[in-house]
Specification:
Order of helices and strands: EEEHHHEHEHEHHHH
CATH class: Alpha Beta
Strand order of the largest sheet: 1-2-3-4
Low-confidence stretches: none
Number of helices: 9
Structural class: alpha/beta
CATH superfamily: Ribonuclease H-like superfamily/Ribonuclease H
Number of domains: 1
Length: about 220
């Protein structure tokens, strides 16, 4: 399962969640996308969201076209745990997984729920860590990143999902959508590219500041 969340702030309040069910080659067998009712319908939280403009440019059309639905948080978690069981998921992966896992836990607590978010024991994988250990630390990436200007104001090479996808896909003009399912799809492709290197998979290595690896 490759997971992505969009939040109203850095501490939690997930409002958009999506995932793919895929194999090691990036073939996608199932997808899920939902807006979290409790957060998305709270105007105070949503108007302060970093991507608040997407309420009108992205989510309104998605709701109108029935490409996404509103679900209560507890129902989203039930859907996730059911998907893990039904598809016999052995690993949940995300780009910057520490962030996604943390904000999901915070959202759970903020809404007054106790207990665990997941009812199944699975491996965890930070695709960001994996990408930096494999694809992004190469001389080729460093050369292209410098040539393309994928460099932060502090002089560090950028390593976010947008830039990893640009490199892995060859689409150097790609712009990340920053909606959950769309981002989960590109992260699935990044994961497949990392797995194709046949390098050791860094299961459970979360919050390891992987960006430092490629500098």
């Amino acid at each position: 399962m490759v997971l992505d969340t969009e939040t109203a702030d850095l501490s939690g309040n997930v409002y958009d969640i999506g995932w793919t069910i895929c194999d090691n080659k990036g073939n996608i067998f199932d997808e899920y996308n939902a807006l979290v009712n409790e957060t998305f319908t709270d105007p105070e939280k949503m108007m302060g969201a970093f991507y608040a403009n997407k309420l009108f440019t992205h989510y309104a059309p998605m709701l109108f076209n029935q490409d996404i639905e509103m679900r209560n948080w507890i129902d989203v978690l039930a859907d996730m745990n059911n998907a893990i069981e039904d598809w016999e998921v052995t690993c949940i992966a995300a780009y910057n997984a520490g962030f996604d896992f943390r904000v999901m836990g915070n959202t759970h607590k903020n809404l007054g729920y106790t207990g665990k978010v997941l009812s199944h024991k699975v491996k965890t994988l930070d695709i960001w860590q994996f990408a930096c250990e494999t694809k992004l630390k190469t001389r080729t990436y460093k050369k292209i990143a410098q040539e393309q200007g994928w460099v932060s104001s502090k002089g560090n090479l950028k390593s976010g999902a947008e830039f990893a996808y640009r490199f892995c896909s060859g689409d150097f003009g790609f712009i990340e959508d920053h909606t959950a399912l769309s981002d989960a799809r590109i992260e699935t492709e990044i994961l497949a590219a990392c797995l194709a290197t046949r390098r050791k998979i860094p299961y459970g290595k979360i919050n390891g500041s992987p960006w430092r690896i490629i500098q």
